[in-house]
Amino acid sequence: MRIRLMTFNIAHGRGLGLYQGFTSARRLRRNISAIAALLREWRVDLAAFQEIDEDSHWHHGVRMMEELRIESGFDTALMGVNNRREGERPLHYGNAIFTRLPVELWDNQPFGAASLGEKGFMYAELHLGGPYLLPLVNLHLDYRSRARRLEQLGRMIAYMRARPPREDRVHLPPLICGDFNSVAARSGDAVASLFSQLTEDGSYVLLPEKMRTFPSLIPSRGLDFVFVPAQFRVTSCKVVPALLSDHMPVLVEFDTGHE
Predict the structure, then answer these.
(1) Which residues of 104-113 are buried (b: 16+ CB within 10 A; e: fewer)?
(2) 194-252 pLDDT, tens per residue?
(3) Mapped to the 3 state alphabet, what secondary structure does the chain carry?
(4) What angle do CA 243, 232, 5 make, to 5 degrees?
(5) Which residues pair with 126 in a beta bridge?
(6) Beta bridge partners of 255
């Protein structure tokens, strides 16, 4: 089965603005429509979003996730809320997975309980047909502290290893993607550490290679990655030059070898 996966930190739909609280409802809807058009243009089957809102006060009543799902033509959208704050200025945001593949199960794991700036990861098992399941992890790590990123990564790996096997399904190696807030070349940081641990158990390809994703206007660093099992045949990888966020999306097309 050939699959197109996009990972994209959409920065709350603010586009190139510095703060989503300054984004009008009209501008937000224009940004949502542009992101949806991007998903349609590139015929995306799986989208892993970071910094997407379920319902937050700075969106003036616009239901960002639901409007994006409808405009992009996805039937299934899973929301992993990592920040919850009620009251007069509510915040509900985190990560999301949009998929055209059937979902057998999914879970969300915030790393903490902060009401602002909390990070976390989503886990989903997608049905490819027959007994085959494709596990997917959508991850967003801390931007301030290398030690915190490594601790968060350790929690994600422990979660994956503790998941009980299912006798009626064949689990393929997991896809892991997201905003790592770490460059690939930095030894001892999140990307290099995860690559080292994954290759202990099997063979993986880290994409994109030597391509920068942040900041989108003048990219100087690669922070957004997809870890693809080497048994999948990668047919293309592209950093899409879209000025719709402070990050640029990464698009990877691959064939799982299973229908």
Answers:
(1) eebebbbbee
(2) 999 998 777 999 999 989 999 999 999 999 999 999 999 999 999 999 999 999 999 99
(3) CEEEEEEEECHHHCCCCCCHHHCCHHHHHHHHHHHHHHHHHCCCCEEEEEEEECCCHHHCCCCHHHHHHHHHCCCEEEEEEEEEECCCCCEEEEEEEEECCCEEEEEEEECCCCCCCCCEEEEEEEEEECCEEEEEEEEECCCCCHHHHHHHHHHHHHHHHHCCCCCCCEECCCEEEEECCCCCCCCCCHHHHHHHHHHHHCCEEEECCCCCCECCCCCCECCEEEEEECCCEEEEEEECCCCCCCCCCEEEEEECCCC
(4) 25
(5) 103, 134
(6) 2, 233
Distances (CA, A) of 187 to 11, 51, 184: 27, 26, 8
Hunting for tokens 């990123």 — which residue is that? 149
pTM (whole model) above 0.85: yes
For the domain spanning 2-255, the CATH number is: 3.60.10.10
Beta bridge partners of 79: 96
Q: Work out the burial of residue 87: count CB atoms within 10 Å of its CB; fewer than 13 is exposed, 13-18 middle, 19 or more buried.
A: exposed
Longest dimension (CA), the chain: 51
Sequence spans of domains, the chain: 2-255
